[in-house]
Write a structure and sequence with these properties.
The structure is a homodimer of 258-residue chains. Chain A is α/β, with parallel strands linked by helices and 258 residues long. Chain A has helices at residues 30-48, 56-63, 67-75, 89-99, 115-121, 124-128, 159-166, 177-190, 216-230, and strands spanning 5-8, 10-13, 53-54, 81-82, 86-88, 106-111, 131-138, 147-148, 151-155, 170-173, 194-197, 210-213. In chain A, strand 8 and strand 9 form a beta hairpin. Chain B binds a DNA duplex (22 and 22 nucleotides) through helix 1, helix 3 and strand 2.
DNA sequence: ACGTGTGAAAATATTCACAGCT
DNA sequence: AGCTGTGAATATTTTCACACGT
């Protein structure tokens, strides 16, 4: 995944890099890592509401998973709960923060300031969750030099300098698909090791670089798939009405019958 | 209680479907569904370049996966390749389109027209990949009535009417976290069955409704985790006991192990 | 009592490797 | 000779269920 590894989102990201050396360092499974961010969000919410202790059951509910999965996930970080009691909200928050490497606010570069890029530049969620947008970069002359959310847009030719000057390890790519691989190459050679890609393209990167992608249309397509299935199945339709159990027209759009 | 199906990016989605109806319809695994959208994108690109036939090897490269996985994925749709030759681009494109339910352009409602919502409203990728934004909805009086990308913004109180009038099954939620559950409830009661949620909140929905979430900060946090590992972290969380709580200057790039 | 932490079982997903069709 | 389709082998993830600490 990411690296296309997925996010499963999604989707996936890539992975790789073969083996883990014997010296196992508590490797946290990928699926777990993806959920830690959600747990963290839930914990912060609880903390703000003054909750000091939480059980796996309620934290799981707040995060939208089941409690067994939550406990198993947390167990990869170590043993921070108290039997019979639950988890201390601040201890666990701290621990997940540390695991995710969010202790220092990480500097992020945002490349591409079209509609999406501009929206991302103003997204408060980045700042509040551990990231500082340290540079805005675009290739369009009309944009370069303008100020946006407190930063001056810089030209993509400055990219390498900026990355080095600001010690940027993570970049967000929001350029058109046609430009994405080029931007990606520049980022990689400037030393960026993690990329969040919004362009609908597969990026080729060396194995030490991690790419996660967010493909908005793909998300809708996945929903569409399930929706398609649903509408062919009367049973699921809500208990309330009469169920018309009429058979599905075999005209099939639904699946494959093999 | 509300059932919910959450899914994480790459993984995990829903469940269900227990029964295996005799008429087995080879249900497509969730992980496969998530990749079909990527294959489709790659196929369309190939088609536009005039490629008529493609091997699993090259399609896989274009989609950023390995060929065994691609073939296995495609095999769930049926048998559309030709041994010794490869896949016909248009046949396969068509087939994936059908599987994803993209035959009819699906009407989508977009709720929330802040920065992100406005960017999404103008995102060409939706239209080109099977979706038609049929309604823009917001609660803010200053926005309601304005025109945006050819549509007039409507008030959220009209939501139920709009959904019914336009036969909307899929909605994109881009409102602030605090408003998301309320909007979601309205959508569900109006009959929407699939929701793409950009608000950083867990949505509670009945089990016949599907929610996918896109959490931008979470994506960065996942990258941060891997990045943290890459740069070699002095403190190993966990298991072995006491952690020295003193903060270590993270500047150090310690040797990577791998 | 209560709720964590975790082995073991079950379910999913990925990869291998090759038989079989063109 | 080339490439798909797929069982079988692996690997990963989820779920179960209960021993154990508080």
């Amino acid at each position: 995944m990411i690296a296309q590894r997925g996010q499963l989102n999604a989707v996936g990201a890539t992975v790789d890099q073969r083996s883990v050396p014997a010296t196992d360092q508590r490797s946290v499974p990928e699926a777990t890592v993806a959920r830690l961010a959600t747990y963290l969000r839930a914990l912060i919410g609880l903390g703000e509401h003054g909750v000091a202790t939480v059980s796996s059951e309620s934290l799981a509910t707040a995060a939208g998973v089941n409690s067994a999965k939550l406990r198993k996930d947390l167990s990869y970080l170590g043993s921070y709960g108290v039997r019979g009691v639950g988890y201390d909200v601040s201890v666990l928050t701290e621990q997940i923060n540390k695991t995710l490497g969010l202790h220092q606010n990480r500097a992020v570069a945002l490349i591409g300031l079209g509609h999406l890029g501009q929206a991302l530049a103003g997204y408060a969620g980045f700042a509040s969750r551990g990231f500082r947008i340290a540079a805005l970069i675009d290739a369009h002359p009309a944009l370069v030099g303008t100020r946006l959310h407190g930063l001056t847009v810089q030209h993509v030719d400055e990219l390498a300098d900026i990355v080095r000057r600001e010690s940027i390890a993570i970049a967000v790519v929001a350029v058109p698909a046609a430009a994405a691989q080029d931007v990606c190459d520049r980022l990689v050679s400037a030393g960026v090791t993690s990329i969040l890609n919004f362009a609908p393209t597969v990026l080729n990167v060396p194995s030490h670089v991690d790419v996660r992608k967010v493909d908005l249309a793909a998300e809708l397509q996945i929903l569409s798939f399930h929706d398609n299935r649903k509408s062919g199945r009367p049973e699921c339709a809500g208990a309330l009405g009469a169920e018309q159990s009429l058979a599905v027209p075999s005209t099939g759009k639904v699946a494959v019958v093999r």
